[in-house]
Amino acid sequence: MPETSLLLQAKAIDKRFPGVHALEAVDFDLKPGEVHVLLGENGAGKSTLMKIFSGTIPKDGGRLLIQDQEVDFESPHHARALGIGMVYQELSLIPTLSVAENVFLGRFPKRSSGTVHWNRLFADAETLFEGFDVSIDPQIRVRELGMAERQLVEIAKALSMNAQILLLDEP
């Protein structure tokens, strides 16, 4: 049986903070279609590892490969450009904006005149939610949603950026 190539591979990842060796020689492999759950006590390094994978913080040592290409993320934007989406413990939604505005913030579809194409924005958000069988009105303000629905909006936001790898920090 042929070896499946890895979407993500971490080799001997190391991370130190003042007074703490948070990660020491951590290895991790992710193949297409796999789901992994990291379990451990508070302070075990789970969130630190995901922040390295998402470009939020740099690693101090080791190698990180995306589809067999070594990378050193310069920023979360760089990680997103390489197909990594992250949903953090702390939600980053703006309560006074609609669901659709939050999902596509900074990436609104525009008309030729340069104004926002609101109908397309709401339709795109609705299509995205239908894709994973969730019924959330894209025009509703985020402040009107429960916590579980807000987390789904965060996930939709990450997936709307074509994430091939989705990292969830205590969803």
From TrEMBL:
Q: Which Gene Ontology MF annotations are present?
A: ATP binding; ATP hydrolysis activity
- InterPro entries attached to this UniProt entry: ABC_carbohydrate_import_ATPase (IPR050107), ABC_transporter-like_ATP-bd (IPR003439), P-loop_NTPase (IPR027417)
Alphabetized UniProt keyword annotations: ATP-binding, Nucleotide-binding, Repeat, Transport
Q: Which residues form the ABC transporter domain?
A: 23-171
- Fetch the CDD domains from UniProt: ABC_Carb_Monos_I (cd03216)
Recorded superkingdom: Bacteria
A Pfam family of the record is: ABC_tran
The protein's name: ATP-binding cassette domain-containing protein
